[in-house]
Amino acid sequence: MQPINFRKAIFVLTITLFLLSFSNGSAQDAKEGFRFTTLHNIEHTGVKNQGRTGTCWSYSGNSFLETEMKRMGKPFVDLAEMYTVRNTYLEKGDRYVRMHGSLNFGQGGALPDALAMIDKYGALPEVIYPGKIYSEKLRKHGEMEAVLKGILDAVIANKDKHLSNHWKKAYQRVVDTYMGEVPQNFTYHGKSYTPKSFAEEVVGIHSEDYIQFSSTSRVPFHTKYVILVPDNWMMALSYNVPVDEMTQIVDHALKNGYSVAWAADVSEPYFSWKKGMAILPPKPWADMTKEERKAFFDMPRPEMTVTQQMRDEQYDNYRTTDDHGMHIVGLAKDQNGKEYYIVKNSWDVNNPYEGYLYVSKPYFQLKTTAFLLHKGAIPADIKSRLK
């Protein structure tokens, strides 16, 4: 028997333990996937469920307004998303007829709609106007949309060669039948309000204090333009900024206590509600192998650098479409230090992050159609360039 070389044995044991530790650590990292640390979290109201309606713009818009109220030192109020929706149906109906049907009519909308409807119609709390009078748990607007459009098309096609004074009343009654009549006066926390007085005294938000942004090289930077997407039925204006300034504005807002309403394309396979992630792949999805796609959300990966040309090409070729409205409420980093936006959605809480998503900045830069925020959240140097 050879004598034991204790120094050699200790050395081998140390190396073995190190390798085992490294192996176990790597396996643990792979198992855990993404690990996020919150950097900034804007106080906001809880996640809701828009049901089977195309009203994400109202849920994200009103979530944003609720958060703005808190930022302004007001108590949280659960605002009635369906009151906003109801009023846009009235406005859309009028414009659809005036445009002889040459206007998008449907359930969709844009981020500025919530502000515009508060300006004109006021606001209601959810407890006063839930916006559905039937017994089904989830809201559904498919039938109502079809009935309303049928009325409007019939008004446009009438053979009397002039419009009566009655179609608007008939149209509004259909809206009220599906969604409920609006109370002219109501009591909230022991005080009597009208929708207009509630908006002024309790909500206290005015559209002139908010600015929407987008990015395209087709229009001079730092000027206003109309984003040509079907749901921008009001033809709301947005300021045009370079792609890198988009994230500069949002980062500055979040770091200074402002949240951001966000409209984006969510049709890509690398936007995953099921995984709670939206990440831009380092190469086109079509060029990835089946194995690469399957493992895409397993752990942090490199992403492609977004250019202005890429944004323009995606929009021009219908690769970036105006699909969904959400609410950016925070900033986080993964275990490698890369930053992501914390996004509140309106599809209930049945995903790994209980209704929230982590969205990478490259994905935001490429797939954003518009974002809206308080003008006080804009960095001073960028604000000085806005015309």
Compact description:
The protein has twelve helices and 13 strands. With 387 residues, the chain is an alpha+beta fold.
What does this structure look like?
The chain is α+β, with helices and mostly antiparallel strands and 387 residues long. The protein has one domain: Cathepsin B, Chain A (Alpha-Beta Complex). Strands 1, 4, 5, 6, 7, 8, 9, 10, 11, 12 and 13 form an eleven-stranded mixed β-sheet that branches. Strands 2-3 form a two-stranded antiparallel sheet. A hairpin with a 2-residue loop joins strand 2 and strand 3. It is globular, with a radius of gyration of 25 Å. It starts with 5 loop residues before the first helix and ends with a helix.
Helix-and-strand structural type? alpha+beta
Q: What are the secondary-structure elements, in order, as H or E?
A: HEHHHHHEEHEEEHEEEHHEEEHEH
The number of helical segments is 12
Using only CA atoms, what is the Rg? 25 Å
Mean pLDDT: 91
Question: What CATH architecture do you see?
Answer: Alpha-Beta Complex
What name does CATH use for the topology? Cathepsin B, Chain A
What gross morphology would you assign?
A: globular
- Estimated helix fraction: 25-40%
CATH H-level homologous superfamily name: Cysteine proteinases
Number of strands: 13
